[in-house]
Each structure stands twice: as C-alpha cells, then as structure tokens.
Design goal:
The protein is of the alpha/beta class and 430 residues long. It folds into 3 domains: 196 residues, HUPs (Rossmann fold), CATH 3.40.50; 140 residues, 3-Layer(aba) Sandwich (Rossmann fold), CATH 3.40.50; 66 residues. The protein is built from 19 helices and 12 strands. The strands form 2 sheets. Strands 3-2-1-4-5-6 form a 6-stranded parallel sheet, with helices on both faces. It has a 6-stranded parallel sheet with strand order 9-8-7-10-11-12, with helices on both faces. α11 runs antiparallel to α12 and α14 packs parallel to α19. It is elongated, with a radius of gyration of 25 Å.
C-alpha cells in the first residue's frame, strides 16, 4: 500500500500557525501518513514583490514543524530554478517517490483559481486536491459543486475539507513586525524567535541596527565538539597500527582538526614516507562505518541539547567540519543531529583547510550572515585559529588537548562543555 503524503505549499514568508493547522486537519480527516511543507521557490504571482531569501523561509518552515514527527520541510521547489509551478512539483514528486500517493492541500480559493493555473489537468493527474473551507460561514455545498465541475473538466479527485476560520496571514504578521507589535500569538515559538533574532521584516533605522557583538548564527565543528570521535579515531588508528609509540600518539594529536589531505601529509612527515597510511586509513574508515551502522558513534554529552537550545532561540546553525561530506552526512544522520543544521560545510567545500579561515567564511556565506555575527564552537587549536582569522567569535570547548596561552588569547572564552557554551552565547545576546 502506498504511503499517503499531504503537501502544503506556500511562500511561507513567514510560515504561521494557520499553515501548520492546515496540515493537522488534513492529516486527521484524510488519514495521511505524513504532511510535507514546501516553501515556494519563485511563485509566478509574487514576481516583482520582495520575498525573503529562500534560506530564511526554509529555516522558518523547519522550525515551525519542531516536535511534529509526522511533518517535514521539503526544499524541492527551492532547489528548482525559475518560476514555481504546482504541476511541475507534482510530476517531480511522483517521479522521485513512486511508492507515495500525494494530496495537495489548498485553501478554498483554489476552487475559483484552479482553471487559471498552469495546466491543472497535470496537477490532478498526479495528486488529489484537498480544498479547505473557511469556518462555519463557508457554504460547503457551493464548494462541493465547484469541485465537481472542476473534476468533470480536468479529471482527478478534489475533496472538500472543513476548516476553522482564522484571522491570520503572513501579510498581517509582516505588518505587525514592522510596527513593532508582538506576533508570538500568530507564529510557532521557534519561528517567532527566528524572526526576532534575524531581524526579519523590520524597517531598521541606524540606531536600531544590531550592535557589533550581537550574534545571529552559530557554527559548530563536528569531531571532538559534537561527536566524541577524536578519541574513537585515535583508538581505532592505534589498534590498526598495532605498534603504539609516543611518536605515533603525538602525530595523531597533531592531525586533530585538519583535512584528510593535511593529515596524510603530517603523518608522512612525522612517521616516514614509507608509513602505511592508506592501508591503515581503510581500517579506520571501516571502524567508523561499523559504528555508524551499529548506532554506537559517541555523541558529546549535551550536544543535542545545545543545538536545539540555539536552534529554537532563533539562531541560524551550521556545521563546518574538515571531514569529507561522504562521511559527515551519514554520521550526522546516524546520531540524529542532521535536522538541527541550516547548512553543512565539509572539507571539500573550502579551498584551504584549518587553520585557514576558508571553511568558516564559507559557512557564514551559506548562512547569509556576516562573520562578526557568527559564533564558532570548536575543540581544536587549528579550529580556533581558523575561526579567529575568519573574523567570527570563537568559543573553545577543549577535548583531548587543553588550550595554551596563544589559543586562550584567540578565543572569546574557554568553556568546560558544549552545553555551557550554548548558554553563554544566549546570555551574551540577552
């Protein structure tokens, strides 16, 4: 039996409680397995109007669905260039997910507008339409007749869905924010925090602009910071080598926080050109693969709590890891941390590895945030050097090596654990 997926599309600038409630009602009334929320790329009817960046609208969508296991944010329309047309979205979804059955969830207005949409017969050939009413004042008999006429003309299936009247719109929210009014009653909590933290929809005057110390994004290192994998790496390498020496231990410590290419070069320089690096690397990669598959990758105490705390308080969140993407994404998925990130930057995304600033500059660029407004949480010397060189605000949470005077001078603070680091960032911006 095919899984039944509901689709709620919109500009989501911002997504509000009414959008989420639409998914709740549709799921309950039509027994849907999941509801996907699709921020629109470039809606043809919005051309010429100012729309918030796609990254912000996707970030708000993800935060609106926090805690709803049956809901997910889908970036399909954002990744497709050009105008956004529903018929193309439906066909792409059916091609990607042949075992799913899709229902597009629209407001009642769609029944009056559908014949003006681009090729509505293509929409109805690939998805059922669920048309939501507007409260007790809705004439559902009229809606049913309109639905029947459209089905006769275009084919497919259109169902009418009772829905309460809501005095809420994205336009209203933007106006209230511009006027300095509270919008917490109209937005999910994490979305309201994001709008405030990122300064969306405000018409700022110079005296209202955020100060130079105001942070709106946090960039995390992965190994040794979020995951206790530095220790796992050293133990796996020493086991693979079978001959633990002070020279080997010092060399393994020296490659913390650098790219794979840099680590290869360092080990050859320290241990000799004939050192069996490639053979040992294969064994270590296999040890990590088994840890991922067995669910035993060690997560640092408080890591998920720290990520969620900052994420729900409106900060943009990125990962900047020297490890290659081929390994980073499976490890984040295996540990359940991937949904916490708005951007993931890996070793191959930066021209030069740490201590060069490239990876943190790339992360700030992907978050559309000035480096000075990005905090960085790192465990390694090279990571702190890179964060400082990038002009970000570095916080060090030591792992295997304690900071020396140089690193203490470069870091904003040296803190005992990642949970404390997240709270310090919140306190600084309170």
């Amino acid at each position: 039996m095919k899984r039944k997926i509901g689709l709620v599309g919109g500009t989501f600038d911002p997504i509000h409680r009414g959008h989420v409630l639409l998914g709740v009602y549709a799921r309950q009334q039509f027994d849907l397995d999941e509801v996907w929320f699709l921020p629109a790329g470039m809606p043809y009817f919005k051309e010429g109007k100012q729309v918030s960046p796609a990254a912000d609208r996707l970030a708000m969508t993800a935060r609106a669905l926090d805690g709803l296991e049956w809901a997910r944010a889908c970036d399909l329309e954002l990744r497709r260039g050009g105008r956004t047309y529903t018929c193309e979205t439906v066909e792409e979804l059916n091609a990607r997910y042949p075992d799913y059955e899709f229902s597009f969830i629209f407001g009642a207005d769609c029944l009056d507008q559908l014949d003006h949409w681009r090729e509505p017969e293509r929409i109805l050939a690939g998805a059922r339409i669920l048309a939501a009413g507007r409260g007790s004042g809705t004439d559902y008999d009229v809606m049913e007749r309109k639905a029947a006429a459209l089905m006769q003309r275009f084919g497919g299936e259109i169902r009418v869905m009772p829905f309460p009247a809501l005095d809420i719109s994205s336009t209203l929210i933007r106006e209230r924010v511009r006027n300095g009014q509270d919008v917490s009653d109209l937005l999910p909590g994490a979305v309201a925090a994001y709008v405030k933290r990122q300064g969306l929809y405000r018409e700022e005057t110079p005296e209202e602009e955020p100060g130079p110390c105001s942070l709106s994004a946090v960039i995390f290192d992965m190994d040794g910071t979020l995951l206790d994998t530095e220790r796992l790496f050293i133990e796996a390498w020493e086991e693979a080598d079978g001959n633990v020496t002070p020279e080997l231990e010092a060399a393994l410590i020296a490659i913390i926080g650098v790219t794979r290419e840099q680590s290869e070069q360092i080990l050859y320089e320290r241990l000799g050109a004939d050192y069996p690096y490639e053979a040992l690397r294969i064994k270590v990669d296999e040890a990590f693969r088994l840890a991922r598959e067995n669910g035993t990758l060690p997560v640092k105490d408080g890591a998920e709590e720290a990520l969620r705390l900052l994420w729900r308080n409106g900060y943009k969140i990125a990962l900047a890891s020297s490890t290659i993407r081929e390994l980073v994404i499976p490890e984040l998925k295996a540990t359940g941390l991937l949904p916490c990130f708005d951007a993931v930057i890996c070793g191959e995304d930066a021209a030069h590895g740490k201590p060069a600033p490239d990876i943190f500059l790339k992360a700030a660029e992907c978050l559309a945030t000035a480096p000075a407004r990005c905090a960085v949480i790192e465990d390694s010397f090279n990571g702190i050097r890179a964060a400082h060189a990038a002009g970000t605000v570095p916080f060090m949470v030591p792992d295997l090596v304690q900071p020396d005077d140089e690193i203490r001078g470069l870091a904003k603070a040296v803190l005992p654990d990642i949970r404390t680091a997240a709270r310090r960032i919140l306190e600084q911006d309170s």
